[in-house]
Write a structure and sequence with these properties.
single chain; 6-stranded antiparallel β-sheet; 11 strands
Length: about 200
């Protein structure tokens, strides 16, 4: 499904991803702009404002950070992997499922981080700083540019069921091929919120 950007040229913009961080002067926030044509992401930019890093991606054109090509991590052993995540702080009923996932993932990795900016998290996956990332619900404007960055940097993105992501409200799993597959296996084993809950959340 092409999601919310199904027809024509659509711009997906988040002028400040990580608003709470910005308000507290925590230096993890940025802007995200993506363009889709008939539901297919064509170009994306994520700007890490505090660190003056500009990430760019274009369909079939690769991904860069300040003009230098970037690639996803080559780490395949979860024990050496650094994983990014986001907490379901707006969906407290999902916390038990998320805590099971966290408990399964954390002790099998070299660490788990939460920055509070999904756009920067996905850029970190694209740049090979994170080896993988997962979150249970994100908005199109949080992820559109970051999804293209990861894909053009050689990574894989999907929802928690391993299905392709459109420009939509969705769970996100991202990483290099090996870590993405491993994360999906952990989520499947520990369970994710019911699909009905996920669908309802799109309208709240």
């Amino acid at each position: 499904s092409p999601g919310l950007a199904a027809e024509g040229l659509v711009w997906i913009v988040d002028p400040r991803d990580g608003t709470t961080n910005f308000l507290h002067r925590y230096p993890m926030y940025g802007g995200s702009i993506a363009a889709a044509i008939d539901g297919v992401l064509q170009a994306g930019v994520v700007v890490d404002v505090a660190h003056d890093v500009h990430y760019h991606a274009s369909l079939g054109g690769g991904a860069t950070a300040n003009g230098r090509p970037i690639r996803v991590s080559g780490i395949t052993d979860p024990g050496y992997a650094l994983i990014g995540t986001g907490f379901p702080f707006k969906q407290p009923r999902w916390l038990p499922a998320y805590q099971r996932q966290f408990n399964a993932i954390l002790p099998r990795t070299s660490g788990v981080r939460r920055t509070g900016s999904a756009a920067l998290d996905l850029a970190a996956v694209a740049a090979g700083c994170y080896d993988g990332f997962w979150e249970l619900m994100l908005a199109p404007w949080d992820i559109a540019a970051g999804l293209l960055l990861v894909r053009e940097a050689g990574g894989v993105t999907s929802n928690a069921a391993g299905q392709a992501i459109a420009v939509e409200h969705t769970a996100v799993v991202a990483g290099n091929e090996a870590i993405h597959a491993w994360l999906l296996a952990q989520l499947e084993a520990e369970g994710v919120p019911d699909a009905v809950d996920l669908a309802e959340e799109r309208h709240t």
